[in-house]
Amino acid sequence: MRKLVQTIFILTMMSLPFAALADYPEKPITLIVPYQAGGSMETMARVFAEELGNELNINVLVRTQPGAGGKIGTTAASRAIADGYTLLFAPESTVLWPPIAENVNYSLSSFDPIIRVTDLPQAIVTSKSSGIETFEDLLALSAAQSMSYADQNSISRAFVDYIAMREQVVWVAVPTKGGGEMVPFLLGNKVNFAWSGGAHNRYLDQMNVVLSMTAAPQETMPEVPTMQERYGVSMPGGATIWAPAGLSEELRAKLTEAAITAAHSEAFNDLMMNTLGFPLADLTGSQLTAELMTINEDLAAIYEETAP
Amino acid sequence: MLDIILQAFAAALEPMNLLFIALGIALGIVIGVLPGLGSVTAMAVLIPITFYMSPLAAIAFLVGVNKGGTSGGAIPAILLNSPGSPEAAATAWDGYPMAKRGEAFRAMKFSLFSSVTGDTISDLLLIVLVVPFAAFALQFGPVEYTAVLLFSFALIAGIAGDSPLKSGIGIFFGILLSTIGLDPVASTSRFTFGQLKLEDGLSLSALAIGALALSSVVIQLSDLITRREKDDFASNQADTKAGRSVSAREFFSYWRTLIRGALTGSLVGMLPGLGVTLASFLSYSAAKRASKNGDNFGKGEPEGIIATESANSAVVGSNLIPTIALGIPGNIAAALLVGALVMHGVVPGPFMLSMHGELIYGLFASMILANIFHLIIGRAGLSLWVQFARYPRRLILPPVLMFCIFGIYLPAQSLWDVGVMLAFAGLGILFTRARISIVCTVIGFLLGGMFETSLRQALLLHQVEGISILASPLALVFLLLTIAVLSRAIWRSQKESNKSA
Question: Helix (H, G, I), strand (E, B), or coil: what is residue B383?
Fold first, then answer.
């Protein structure tokens, strides 16, 4: 009798992965966004979720779980079962930076990256009325006096401070709550310059982009110098779909395939290109994993140099 | 210009659009009435539905929800002395005494009519001011915000509770509570005891509903059980026409308060971040000072309700001024609207008006029409809500208690938040018995984060550029006003203690 139960048990367990894949997805999938409803991450997630759902023939529900700069939702996603029913949509910095600089219970190895859908056009910007038109202008002015800048999170501060350290200038970070507070501070000349996560794309008639914080020059403004070419490092800018680590190979392949189709869908392209002004990316598989490892090492190095 | 307006109204008058406006207002009011759920929760829950609507219908629907939700919060404040959200806390001060006296219906009518009037004035201001405003908002930086907030704290300490000193203690306790979580400058944890869930601080809705609504329900229940108070609320309700009606003449005799409230609310709404609750308290305090019935405030004076409700509803319209002029949402409700706009392919930002003028003017037209619906649907709802005044309290209060708990649990599905709410209900009871205004603590908590951030931003800027207060005339005016308000409060309380001695 006991043998029989054991055999049945083992057989059921063995058949589970296949059964799960054959039927996947058989219930709605939850896509966690670790930020407030109403932000650009949530907006991207909603349109992406709709398209992913169309592809998989199931509802993909967006759940916003904001808090602690994205750490609460990311922690929740890292603890979910790796069955493909819980996914996370978060910037790579939210997954990579806290394990290095802060105390959290997750790290890069807690997740399987599925697809990077965009590279956020992070940059250092100035207001047109300030007269600072290029990065050289900014440095020249900084040599004479200390300057204030609007920053938005601990990672942006670490990178801007890194530049200040290399250039031996004094830049004082004034913390702001996201683009919504940065824009009026900069345009009202309350600060000298600002770090921007992408909001500046909507104010290009009133702002100068002086330095791109990305690895490659930004498509729409190739003449702007990048942090990579000047300092040999760049900020992680990818916004990526993640699954909790431990996804079976078949499941991962199926999800990746559906995610690529969703990323290339008309609705998602229209949102990214025409509405938000963010460039599309569709990095997947081992290429994405390898790039994340490199970024992770760069981040650790920056942290070592700028940590108080 | 005229043809743009005509086109806008033509678009707004589409039957589907009207249907969604009406639906939005009705849903907003119902959700606003439920304790613990406000217009923000309502909008967050309903946004996914708007996917399937046309852009104009979607935005108009959400604006309707926001309008209904903001006015709906006054109903439980009046009938149960348990405001559904902090912005209706001052409504309870005069609404509940009126209701207890048997004038529940009248109090609710005053509240609804003031909401609609304040809202309409603010919508008109929105349409006129949206373009020229952009420059004005940019005048407000950290130094100015710090001064405005200090001024607000001084004003609120002067009107809430019976002693400015006790109210001040309440406010500072609230500010202290708001420092739980991540430090805004250094990003290090404070008072979190290693708990990730405390990194974001305490939940505002859990704290506010616990301290304001739940504590009041528990006090009322315990008064009934110990027979300290008779369960005569229902039998008091007036059945005569005079005891229930509000004539247009009576209502508009308060035109000064109405206009003052609407302007206060509109002004606060224009500045991103200050919010609905502050508007309602500032207006209440201004009305109390200006009115010849000032001493009756807090004892069932309709003017108190009018001041509060006209101001908090006025924020709804003017909040869209920074949203449309600069692309900067004035509060969470406006941020949710921006999210919905983006999903429908509209870029929020300074070009919104030029690129999507048709939609924006259609939205303005919808907002004006929505006010008419608001009046009709809200008035019909009153006949329903007033039924609740006819039942004995002992039957009404226990379900309210349950609603508070569900309302707090559901949005984040967090038992922790329920615990926070219960703890603050306990604190609310303690404060009420000690005659310290718990509302002050809630406001201190609500604005404390912003106060701290602005103050520290101002200090950092001072460090770089040596900017002093004197460089900003706006900040200077508000700081001088703060000193004036404080010295007046101290002078008055000394005079009173001399009198009693």
Answer: helix
